[in-house]
Amino acid sequence: MRDRWILALLVLSVVMLAGCRREEAELTLLEKLARAPGVETVVPLTQAGFEQAFQVDITQAVDHADPGRGTYSQRFYLSYRGEEAPTVFYTTGYGVTRNYESEPAALLQANQVLLVHRYFPDAVPSTTDWSFLTIAQAAADQHAIREALRDILPGKWISSGASKGGMTALYYRYYFPRDVDATIAYVAPVMERPDDPRFVPFLRSVGSASCRGKLSALQQEFLGRRSSLLPLVHEHALQKGYSFTVFSEAQAFEYAVCEYPFAFWQYGQESDCSSLPGTDAADRVLFDHLVAVSPLSYYADAGFEYYRPLFYQAYTEIGYCPYMFDHLAGLLQSVPAPDYRAFAPHGVEMTFRPEVMAAVVSWLRYSGERIVTIYGGIDPWTAAALVPDPLLDALHVVQPGANHRVKIGDLDARDAVIGALERWLGVDIDETRLAVSTAKEGRERL
Known about the structure:
- This protein is of the alpha/beta class.
- About 40% of the residues lie in helices and about 15% in strands.
- The chain is built from 13 helices and nine strands.
- The chain is globular and about 70 Å long.
């Protein structure tokens, strides 16, 4: 009699399990997302090239080591091609104002999760405590999303991002190395200290001596014409709706001039040197050129507010570059000793913890397998490129003449990159998909 009851219970369990599986299979993707752990809201979107797309808000712990400290809402965008497709987990390291397709998602015909970084718009904790803005907490945010989507997107996963997003993808790989099957990090510097000393020698040798000379001469001309260019700064601020209360218009002008060569090489090309204005150009021509290369928006109140998380991270964990201004001695008046620390949150204690990046960089350099790092030869951030141990199953590519917007489709070595991805992911890749990439990363500071 007892055996019959056990048999009946087993049969009932199998029937119930089968029923649950049928119910799960019959759920729409939207319903599956809505039921995923922590998901608050799911908003359907339309995204070219994908079957479905959604804007998703998910509850995250402010402190993943102690969830009792509170929660916040973090936004990501899911673009879906199919359950069997791989998934690119793409991070910007900043905010995200709209959904778009990254180059890896186009190349792999993959699903994509596009994530807003904590402490940026649509992912801001209500706490005023900045100490929870760490690379470990941000990586734990990604891990929580990875776990929430594990059953919905069961294929291979690839972490990726460009610039600060590429850095974020590398940090995530360090903290959760088994979460993804490969990493593609574009133009991602790995700095182990504030004011990283590798940048100044790079800027003193990048490009041609003739071009570097023109850029320096223009900086000196901008500052020498301060009295005639500052009225144009004010006019520009009114036209753009910029307010300058944290920094004055004069300070913003000088910061933009100091940033000018770095910005030129970050987003420009050696060939652009031939079209630089001469030092005898009219005030309006010089001013329009300056703000086209080195925007004043970074120093306006809204820019300062937006980028504070970046600079908090720079001076607590991830490091940054220094200004190079020795050649401007005596010409700077409003910011005689420019320092990027001025853009970090004011009145907030910041102590740099070198042991954090020392551990991350050591692991990436000597243990980080199945990672592609891609850099542009004239991009100043390449001064702090991650170069893996040659014994690792990893790939490091620097494209001569390319800047901060370099992509796989630009590489002379793209066949090697594609071959590595095919081997790591067990897929066949159609190179023609590179031509239809719709990546639209903005002009960020990093």
